[in-house]
Amino acid sequence: MVARSRGQRRRTLQDVAEAVGLSANTVSRALNDMPGVSAATRARIKAEAERIGYVPNVHARSLVLGSPKTIGVVVTDIANPYFNDLVSEIEDQAFTAGYNLLLLLSDEDPERERLAIETALRAGVDGVIGVPVQGRANPWTALTRAGIPLVLTTREIPELGVDFFSNDNEAGGRMTTNAVLERGARDPLLIEEDLQISTVEHRINGFRQALEEHGIPFDSRRNELIPSRRNARSAMHWRAEDGYRVVRDLLDGGRMPDAFVVGNDYLALGLYSALRERGIRIPEDVLVMGWGDYAFARFLDPPLSTLRLPSIEVARRATARLFALLDNSVAGDEPVTEFIQPELVLRASTNR
Amino acid sequence: MVARSRGQRRRTLQDVAEAVGLSANTVSRALNDMPGVSAATRARIKAEAERIGYVPNVHARSLVLGSPKTIGVVVTDIANPYFNDLVSEIEDQAFTAGYNLLLLLSDEDPERERLAIETALRAGVDGVIGVPVQGRANPWTALTRAGIPLVLTTREIPELGVDFFSNDNEAGGRMTTNAVLERGARDPLLIEEDLQISTVEHRINGFRQALEEHGIPFDSRRNELIPSRRNARSAMHWRAEDGYRVVRDLLDGGRMPDAFVVGNDYLALGLYSALRERGIRIPEDVLVMGWGDYAFARFLDPPLSTLRLPSIEVARRATARLFALLDNSVAGDEPVTEFIQPELVLRASTNR
DNA sequence: GGAGTGAACGAGAACGCTAACTTTGCGACA
DNA sequence: TGTCGCAAAGTTAGCGTTCTCGTTCACTCC
């Protein structure tokens, strides 16, 4: 049983110095493996520091070194597998590069986002990777004004004029839609969450382009927008639930498309459930195309065709860029925008 | 378009002071809304600070105030929905209490965990909430020795002697097993991941107890352990895959239990797939009981019976306890251990 | 009109650490 | 034996804040 030592005054360099009868400076040199200390003294100092439980004060240290080495990640939620991958990979990259990661969740709430950005600012982060709630520059300018490097991913804010990395949602919209059209669909329905973000807009554009290529007119009846719900912790349950409900209502209303193209795999999951309930078969009666290739997609019955997103790659490029900006190894005056190609994964739900 | 001001020297209190022709002290008072500054001067200072983009140096500030206000969360991965909920809720609680959250992922890797703890220490966190990779005290003592409050969740290390909050896995093991036994199963098989942690041990204990209550002997043939795989980002895919494979191999080997009780819903998902492939019907031919009530569980065909875990409640109590320790509002000498009851969710996969 | 009062602001120290510079001391060498 | 050189250690300053204590100055009041 290890003694719990709570409430004790925190040990300082001076404490160690007094304990070994040397100056604080020597102790500092010894512990930081700087030259100018004999091996014997160094060992003695390290042992003593260990013994009395000395932990360097990070604030004092970074006050003089000027390097907090922390990046902030402001993201809507981590329940979404895509953001989950994003954050995991950013954490991994940051860890490797010796950076800490301050996690801030905005919950799709603009006010919460504003506070998150403020927190990042107050926490003294070196840089920020963000996924905005809305397409408005406003809360983020607090960072750019303070001269803190900012990189956005997944959701774009062109007027901000900062670097942006994302999967190519327009291409994805085309790819998924084309896949069902090439398999004979003539009346596909796109189901999306109603978010004021570039992602949805780009996907709808891609959807529309694919339709036009196939000579099918685009109108609002082909595009069902589901009101978005906040609170990240149950977002995925709700999405499946919403997918279920929207299809049930559609069928009740007598509308029966010959293909569903949806904004994420959880929507598709709910949709499966609603179709099964009505005895409508996939893919015989209707094709279903998901988005995201979540872990469960290939285990559904039938396995779900979907779009695999390059979340890891997006995270990698975004962090690499941020680190480059932090190193000043790159001129940040010309904002970089990169779209990474997603990959179509065809499974039985679109077989025909 | 907002000007991007990179590479500029960071503004200091002194810069603001010189700009307005006052002392740094007065500027500090003005910006912190302390008395002793006239309203006019205060407004002028704030405007100027805003104009030149002054952001207080958090390190200088917390060096003197002695309050970093950050908690570290060391967890294996956030792809697991349970940990996802845990981290989301901790973030929420921390945010509300004015704390920052430093996220550290250990990836089920003891070495990575050791480094994560070291990082938390170096980052100067006020306290830590941890989910250990193993049941060994060793890496965590670095925190307790430094006098940094530590609370563990989900996975226990009794010899550490720190507070622990978890769902009651033993009870959960009993509840899930009893559910299938009460529905006629006489030859249930438990599938678990082979992790050296208290969680798995407790669940197996619960399983065994339920069997004994029903007069069924427990032996190793009733308990299939799947080797654990690292790398958090694909952990969920792999779990489903493993679930698929283990059942396929079992069937190939001529073993056919009358119920599966599994360690998480992703395993159940893979299992569904394997059973479907062989034409084995759920629940007619075999009962399936999951664990975790992941978002997809109720949308499967048939909807999956499972155990809903009180992840939010666990997170809440753990953070509440940590904050109490940080406030010194509670004596931390007597470690607290709390087990919160899970809730059985019965769906069609165990109907009989 | 001079003492007392209180608001507005300034000077200096302190937080814990690191870096530049200085001092000490011991052995080698002429 | 005195001096030079170099390793080992100490001294001092400074990072950007906040806090404590002073100082200034206008204003009231007898």
UniProtKB/TrEMBL annotation, chains A, B:
Biological source species: Pseudolysinimonas kribbensis
CDD domains (alphabetical): HTH_LacI (cd01392), PBP1_LacI_sugar_binding-like (cd06267)
Gene3D superfamilies tied to this protein: 3.40.50.2300, lambda repressor-like DNA-binding domains
Keyword terms: DNA-binding, Transcription, Transcription regulation
PROSITE patterns: HTH_LACI_2
Domain HTH lacI-type: 11-65
A Pfam family recorded for this sequence: Peripla_BP_3
Native organism taxonomy: Bacteria, Bacillati, Actinomycetota, Actinomycetes, Micrococcales
DNA-binding found in the keyword field: yes
Keyword Transmembrane helix recorded: no
Protein name: LacI family transcriptional regulator
Annotated InterPro entries: HTH_LacI, LacI/GalR-like_sensor, Lambda_DNA-bd_dom_sf, Peripla_BP_I
PANTHER family membership: LACI-RELATED TRANSCRIPTIONAL REPRESSOR, TRANSCRIPTION REGULATOR, MEMBER OF GALR FAMILY
Tree of life domain: Bacteria
